[in-house]
Write a structure and sequence with these properties.
Helix content is 67%, strand content 0%. By secondary structure, it is mostly helical. It holds the Pfam family Peptidase_M50.
Length: 175
């Protein structure tokens, strides 16, 4: 989406590829094996190329989680209408839940997630500038919240409730 709005940063940096090695983050990859949770390199975006920086930044940030919800809905549709098959049912169930969780998770307003980019884009420029130096600490706070029991009483109830809402919405469409 950033490319559509005039930002070719990802292309110039060789990140528009299906080669998974170009997207690996060393720390994020190691944590997958250590903690069962990790991440890839974020896609580089330079909003200076956008004609309407605030609106287009929000749209770019929404596209990732929205694509997860679209994929989840497509998977749910296949799951809902396909004949019963234990192996495929399990595959589609995991596919749907993974995409719903990723979509909800990425909407959390914590740096470096898309939800933070959306919320921070709504602030006046002066506040955005004051928040920018704090973003480096956001990743540390984010990891503490996610990898410790703090997350059990903060973000996990939100994620669980959000998953229930999305899945109820999917079921209500077909019932």
């Amino acid at each position: 989406m950033a490319s559509v709005f005039g930002d070719d940063t990802a292309k110039r940096e060789g990140r528009v590829t299906l080669n998974p090695l170009k997207h690996l983050d060393i720390a994020g990859t190691l944590l997958i094996f250590i903690a069962g949770f990790g991440w890839a390199k974020p896609v580089p975006v330079n909003a200076a190329y956008f004609a309407t920086r605030r609106v287009q930044s929000i749209i770019v940030s929404l596209v990732g989680p929205l694509s997860n919800f679209v994929l989840a809905f497509i998977g749910f549709t296949i799951y809902y209408f396909s004949p019963m098959n234990m192996t495929m049912d399990e595959f589609w169930n995991v596919f749907v839940m993974l995409n719903v969780v990723l979509g909800v998770f990425n909407l959390l307003p914590l740096p470096p997630l898309d939800g933070y980019r959306i919320v921070s884009s709504l602030f006046p420029v002066k506040i955005q500038e004051k928040l920018r130096p704090l973003e480096a600490y956001g990743s540390i706070v984010f990891l503490i919240v996610v990898l410790t029991p703090i997350g059990d009483s903060t973000i996990m109830p939100f994620i669980g409730s959000s998953i229930d809402v999305v899945m109820s919405l999917f079921y209500s469409i077909y019932e």
